Amino acid sequence: MTDRNYPFPSREDALLILQRDYCYHKIPEQDVQPLIEMSWQLGVDTARNFLKKFPLSEPLKFDVVLAGEGFAVKTEDKDYVSGRIRYFAEIQPGAKVVTVYKQSVQMWAKKNGYSYQQARNLILMHEYFHYLEMTELGMVSKRYQVYMLKIFGREIGKTGIAALSEIAANGFAMTIFPYALLEGE
Amino acid sequence: MVQGLIIVAFMVVMMILMMTKKCPTLVALILLVLGISVIGGIPIKGDNSLFTTVITAGSINMASSYVVVIIASWLGVAMNKTGVSESIIRKAAELGGDKTLFVTFLLYAVTIFLCANINGLGGVIMIGTIVIPILISTGVDKLTAGCVMLLAVGAGNQFGLTRPTYISNALGLEFETVYTISCICAACTVVAAVCFILFRWFKGGKKFAFSAEAEESTAKYEIKGIRGAMAMLTPFLTIALVGIFKWAVLPAILFGLIWLFVWTARGWHKTCNLVLNTCYEGFTMGAPGAALMIFIGMLLKTIQHENISTLLVPLTNAITPTTLIAFIAFFALLAPLSLYRGPLTIYGLGAGIAALMISGGLLAPVLVCVGFISNGCLQTTSCPTNTHNVWVSSFVEEDVGVIMRKLMPFVWTASLVALIIGAVMYW
């Protein structure tokens, strides 16, 4: 298991991501592992389909892939922490903007033993998956629903689990990463 | 006439000093009291003098307001220390799950109620440090998250009990009348906020992030079960007691405190310690607002002193609008003068100008109230000199002026709508 403050998006850390979700306690215990498996596998399958479209003679650069989809990839030279959460990068598919927080990524790269460019590429892969969710796949978070409110044992409303999207995005990034290992800076 | 013009010139100079941040509002109020008294020839000692009427009587002129500020601050601190505020916010986030827009509206609504029960920067920080990161983590961009917080602070201020208590005290109006107008402003701010959130949503949509915990969670009190549910009713209860059951403000807040301590009690000694600690911290947190009100009370006594009012009322009457259309146009166009501690700021020089307009007799006091209170939609949410605006913008790493410009079209329109509704109701 990796440093939880600078997590490598591995299969082993998926449970931690799910546990951080505000709705985690609403998921029955027996559903937790199958849910992780379903989300991770979805990311892996999407990555395999994605790789079929690209020639693998040279490493995949996701700055280029995202720019090709019309995204503006911005880099802010700061370590961005809000509340108890550190943000490495953000994507807003509706606005077609990706923001990379350079200092946060540099710290992540150092902790995980990669160069900044390698780390940036991995994180952009993760973000790219969210774009695919919005445009092709549909939201992974909606594939499993829990109740919104429970009053006197009666369940009211349904809502998805946001963490499932993150787990699938990690599955996607981890499958592509070996084909996209850039040389160090 | 010359004396009157010198006083106006002096007020303009002080206003410029406040707007350019050369002079803090509290210091400017003290200088205004002393300067206007000297220029207007108020005697220093004796009956109806600077010492007796302005300073001594003026210092307790707003007593009922600043007591409410201090006790409400106590309630705010107690709700935070017992974990009630955080639990309410987290429940709202749980409720929405992955529905970002729904979570935003839920957190906005909850934050309004929490902000209606808190006072001062400390309270905003305590709530903001929970709400803003949750909004960001559920997929709201940080600029929108900061603006949502400010729009909730603004609506909460207007919907809460402290601001209308102060304004009714300052303008000599019934609390119920002022609270009705204040609730209209709050409703207009809420509509503006809904429009703003939808506008930002359709412009940028959901945001996703690669993120991780920067530090371990330090959960304190855990609120759960029936007792937790009852404790979480506190901020809604105080508003309901005043708004529905017509209780006076102070007893309602005190009842809220007792209610909170009863449902979060953990043994006699622990609860006594909690009562004392939150009381002292709340009083400290309410102190800046209370201090401001002490000197606003003195400024009002100065302006209302016969030596001064006879000089200034003719000048105020010359600019006071006397038809419905002129009234709406006057306050709508000048609403931005409530920003940067300008002359329409009711927590400052605006209180004195409003008092002069009432003394002039050309406008009914309730209409003066409508004129000055309606710009609250703008001032409470957007003014870059509000300490909570400075804190929120710094927390989301945006310029305070940028946030003002993003909010202005929405909240200025809200001010205009509140002004029109108030004017039509009371003209």
Quaternary organisation:
heterodimer
Q: Largest interface, per-chain counts?
A: A-B, 46 and 38 residues
Helix content bin of chain A: 40-55%
Mean pLDDT of chain A, to the nearest integer, reads 89
Q: How many domains of chain B?
A: 1
Could you characterize what this model shows?
The complex is a heterodimer of chains A (185) and B (427). By secondary structure, chain A is α+β, with helices and mostly antiparallel strands. Chain A has helices at residues 14-19, 29-53, 62-68, 102-112, 116-137, 162-176, and strands spanning 72-76, 80-82, 85-92, 97-101, 145-151, 154-160. The longest helix of chain A has 25 residues, at 29-53. The radius of gyration of chain A is 17 Å and the shape is globular. The two termini of chain A are 26 Å apart. The mean pLDDT of chain A is 89. Chain B has 427 residues and is mainly alpha-helical. Chain B has one domain (2-205, 222-426). Helices cover 77% and strands 1% of the residues of chain B. Chain B has 21 helices and one strand. Chain B has helices spanning 2-19, 25-40, 50-59, 63-81, 84-96, 100-116, 120-137, 142-159, 162-171, 175-204, 225-231, 234-243, 249-263, 268-304, 306-319, 324-334, 349-360, 365-374, 376-382, 387-395, 400-426, and one strand at residues 208-213. Chain B is globular, with a radius of gyration of 22 Å.
Q: Briefly, what is this?
A:
The complex is a heterodimer of chains A (185) and B (427). By secondary structure, chain A is of the alpha+beta class.
